Amino acid sequence: MEQFAHYQPGAYAQEHIRITPTTLSDGRDFFYLDDEPQFVSGEKTRELKDPRPLAYRFAPQLDAEGNEVPYAAPQMRRDPLTGDWIPMATARMNRPITAGPGATAKGNPLAARKPGDPYQDGEVPDTDYNVVVFENRFPSMVRVPGADESVSYINDNPLWEKKLAVGRCEVICFDSNETGLPADLPVSRLRTVVEAWAFRTAEISQMEGIEQIFPFENHGQEIGVSLAHPHGQIYCYPFIAPKMEQELQHTEAYFERTGGNLLKDIMQGELEAQERIVMRNHSWVAYVPAAARWPLEVHVAPVRDVLTLDELNDQERWDLAQMYSTLLKRGNAFFDTGDGKGMDLPYIAAWHQAPIHDKRREHYRLNLQFFSFRRAANKIKYLAGSESGMAAWISDTTPELIASRFHELGEIDIA
């Protein structure tokens, strides 16, 4: 396997996964993660040359009048009322969309290359792949070489800070099947996806200016997914995101008050209560949190104290792949559409891992927060006045009812 500065593969990855890096024609990083034996052994190799004649990603651009202007680097502004940084990336208005009524692309940029196809703006150089990871072509946050990263003020008023959004955005494609669903992938392929999360967490955590690494998956048109392909993303913030900041404040206060780890004690409390536990195996526990906000919400926690995805051992990575596969399948079966087949559930899977530099990281704990805003087979929960206007959640169900439905779908002990 290729040697990387900070990622250390375990025994399984050394023998069964091959990571091959290359660079796309505009200068972005790209990685193949192969689990097929002929690629792992080196018997077969991947296409490394991107044939597209793309301009350098940070090259000057033309404005509406045809004048050359500098690359429009994403910026961020701080909300003086909340302290939150808000990234703003105008280039994302031009990104291709293949899902929903606003579709703008005739082809799928996340698909493997199809020689002879009229659409030749795909991101993957090869005609097939297992898992790939690459920098987003239309990032919300990116470091621009040589750009001034200092704080300045809008209208010269110190109320309104602004600076460049010098983070990083990556895309992970789970499989080359354009119409496939993550829930239908074999556990072995999801194991490779887990390795990709760990690989990128290890490498990105050493990059300058990154404070928090957030792997996540948006799935389903109702969620707002713009590209119809089984994939996820990794947002790497140059700040602590608001939800993580709120969690860190509570985990730190709990430690100062009790000397304990809040996330671990929540998991232990759920195990003792039993009724909201929906799955468990050797390494992981899945439960509906006692104060669940969403009509379908499950949190997944490691049994062992772990801060970040790259700290997981081989057994934990396999057990996670198994649990994630089971969770996706049961999520699809959660709502009865009348034919016994369930539905392709729209969901968000959000990895909460310890921040990189913040001293409060030692009292945090890795966890996955999985949720859907679908509240019935034909209804969704709209985030209206109370939720959107005041962030004051009103639940349409109870955590016990959610857990009870999961209990109908399968055994709690899955290994």
Automatic annotation (TrEMBL):
<dbReference type="InterPro" id="IPR005849">
    <property type="entry name" value="GalP_Utransf_N"/>
</dbReference>
<keyword id="KW-0862">Zinc</keyword>
<keyword id="KW-0299">Galactose metabolism</keyword>
<dbReference type="InterPro" id="IPR036265">
    <property type="entry name" value="HIT-like_sf"/>
</dbReference>
<keyword id="KW-0119">Carbohydrate metabolism</keyword>
<dbReference type="InterPro" id="IPR001937">
    <property type="entry name" value="GalP_UDPtransf1"/>
</dbReference>
<comment type="similarity">
    <text>Belongs to the galactose-1-phosphate uridylyltransferase type 1 family.</text>
</comment>
<keyword id="KW-0808">Transferase</keyword>
<feature type="domain" description="Galactose-1-phosphate uridyl transferase C-terminal">
    <location>
        <begin position="248"/>
        <end position="387"/>
    </location>
</feature>
<keyword id="KW-0548">Nucleotidyltransferase</keyword>
<feature type="domain" description="Galactose-1-phosphate uridyl transferase N-terminal">
    <location>
        <begin position="73"/>
        <end position="239"/>
    </location>
</feature>
<dbReference type="Pfam" id="PF01087">
    <property type="entry name" value="GalP_UDP_transf"/>
</dbReference>
<dbReference type="InterPro" id="IPR005850">
    <property type="entry name" value="GalP_Utransf_C"/>
</dbReference>
<dbReference type="GO" id="GO:0033499">
    <property type="term" value="P:galactose catabolic process via UDP-galactose, Leloir pathway"/>
</dbReference>
<dbReference type="GO" id="GO:0005737">
    <property type="term" value="C:cytoplasm"/>
</dbReference>
<dbReference type="GO" id="GO:0008108">
    <property type="term" value="F:UDP-glucose:hexose-1-phosphate uridylyltransferase activity"/>
</dbReference>
<dbReference type="GO" id="GO:0008270">
    <property type="term" value="F:zinc ion binding"/>
</dbReference>
<keyword id="KW-0479">Metal-binding</keyword>
<protein>
    <recommendedName>
        <fullName>Galactose-1-phosphate uridylyltransferase</fullName>
        <ecNumber>2.7.7.12</ecNumber>
    </recommendedName>
</protein>
<feature type="region of interest" description="Disordered">
    <location>
        <begin position="98"/>
        <end position="124"/>
    </location>
</feature>
<dbReference type="Pfam" id="PF02744">
    <property type="entry name" value="GalP_UDP_tr_C"/>
</dbReference>
<feature type="active site" description="Tele-UMP-histidine intermediate">
    <location>
        <position position="231"/>
    </location>
</feature>
